[in-house]
Amino acid sequence: MNEVVSTAHESVEARSARLSQIAEDVLARCRAHGAGQAEVSIDESRGLAVNARVGEVETVEHTRDRGVSVTVYLGRRKGSASTADLAPASIEATVAQACAIAGFTEEDPAAGLADAELMARPGADGFADFDQWHPWALDADSAVALALECEAAGREADPRIANSDGASVNSGESVSVYANSHGFLGVERGTSHSLSCSLIAGSGDAMQRDYWYSAGLAREDLESARAVGRRAAERTVARLAPRQAKTGQYPVLYTAETARSLVGHLLSAISGGALYRRASFLVDRAGTQVFPEWFGLVEEPHRRRGFRSAAFDGDGVATRTAPIVENGVLARYVLGSYSARKLGLATTANAGGVRNLTVTPNAENLDGMLRGMGSGLLVTEMMGHGINPITGDYSRGAAGFWIESGEIAYPVDEITIAGNLKDMFLGIEAVGTDIDPRSHVHTGPILVGRMTVAGAE
């Protein structure tokens, strides 16, 4: 095979066909080297990133990346190798290296491709289109102008804005192919774009920093540059003159963007790797009550314009909409084919992680939740990673606002919030309706009824 070289103006269809051709060639080479099973992933991406600070351009970066990852199985022995060079000689050397590695590894009963009957099957027109391809014809000059406009809007929004950490504009697109020796071949393509601004208010020891960003798969999903800058300024100024909360037990309300971290802790605890290593506080908890009875969490891999929508997972297994938590009960774990075999279970089509998640709301928006909580802590920022995955013990630095009589009283920082995730999950009292759309995890604010807040004595 002669290498087919990409060009800057190559259509996405041509890129997909070229990478698919390379994937088929890789699998043929694996068979020629005696591999009983093989799989290959090929990724190609390009993008533009611009950073501006205090009215000046700091960086303009064009990126073009590509890579091939090959895994072969000699019986139950596995070998993997990768390269960024798509030339035939490099591909041949990579396949040979993967086979050589497999020859020196011990057999693993769980190794191998996912079962052939589980592979996703395309329709007459191929796999479903989830509306994830929205390239932005953005040149460097236009990106710089947007970044400067964004930062200027923030710096001009309030006289207390004293400095800036800058504004950024990013735009990228990627095409990837996964194929294996079951005859499966799937192509995914996607775009991502973002605008962000970080500002500093006050002076000396009284300085405070905050930011805002907008992200989406399509240009029209983004807030305007001026709106991002102004929102960053509002958030930064609101943090001036913070106090420490008094140490005690209080309700804690996570904003939507910080509430995603609670979902992340759950996913870490129910992922296959943590479970078969017995390194999770939720080992053997599938089918048991983990959240309040009204709480639900569903995975929606086929959501249109979802950040992680896909017809197949990293093993080629067909994805499907399915609950993770239903009526407060942990309905299932998050497993790829390897971890499922290690646990004696069936794959949940989660090789490579979860797709799109939605947490079921049961309350009003953030303002309504504040009125209902009375007094307590509103968390807008988290610091540190003080989580014990085996016990569920939780302790993290935080900042936000103290709430009195359902209203924001003053900003707080240099505090720690602590508890145990098992108790925190069961102690969730409300999930709000105002979802943060900038992630594959769709959740509103989450109110935990009681946690330890460590601040001033």
From TrEMBL:
GO terms for biological process: proteolysis. Its EC number is 3.4.24.-. One of its GO terms (cellular component) is cytosol. Residues 38-102 form the Metalloprotease TldD/E N-terminal domain. One of its GO terms (molecular function) is metallopeptidase activity. Residues 134-240 form the Metalloprotease TldD/E central domain. Keywords: Hydrolase, Metalloprotease, Protease. Residues 247-455 form the Metalloprotease TldD/E C-terminal domain. Belongs to the peptidase U62 family. This is Metalloprotease PmbA. The gene is pmbA.
